[in-house]
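A quick aside before the break. I want you to see a complete sequence-to-structure record at least once, exactly as it would be stored in a machine-readable document. Don't worry about memorizing anything.
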Amino acid sequence: MRRTATFLLALATSVAGIVHAAPPMQTVESVDLKRYAGMWYEIANFPMFYQRDCVGDTTAEYTLHPDGTVGVNNRCRTKDGDIDAASGSATVVAGSNNAKLEVSFFKPFKGDYWVIGLDPEYRWAVVGTPDRKYLWILSRSPQMAKEELDKALAAAKAQGYQLDELRYTPQR
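That is the input. The structure line, written in C-alpha cells, reads:
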C-alpha cells in the first residue's frame, strides 16, 4: 500500500511538472538588422544585477559594423543623476535569421539576446533569454501607447513569461 501511494505521489508530481512546464522559447521568424539598428528605449524589464543602479531613462543603441557584428551601447540614469553606460558587441547566431544574438560586454562572457516579439513596423520589440530569467520591452519612443504595450506584453506571455516581476522604466 505504501509503495503504491509513493508511486502515485511521484506520478502526480511528474504530471504536474509537465502540465506547468513552459514550451521551448521561440523567436520571431526573422529580424532585419538594418531596420533594428538605432535607438531603443527600455519600457520595462525583469530586474537584473547589471541594471541595479539604473532608475530611469534606459536606452540601448545598436550599430551595424562592416564585419557583421552589432555594436551595443546601453545607457541609464542612476539615482544620483549620473549616466551609467556599457558598450559591447553582439554576433548573430547562425541559422537564426538574425533573431538570436549573443551579446558580450565582458569577454569572454556572452549572453543570449532573443527577439521574441517584434512590431511589423519595428516600433517595439520584446527581447528575452531562453531560460526566461531576463526580459526587456523596448520601444522606438520613450513611451508606448497602451494598445502597443498590450501587444508586446502578449508576445512575452505567449512565450511563457510570467510578468509578475516586470518593472516599468521611467523615461523622460
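Two observations worth writing down. The beta strands are 38-45, 54-64, 70-78, 83-92, 100-104, 111-118, 124-128, 135-139, 167-168. The chain has a mean pLDDT of 89. We'll return to this after the break.
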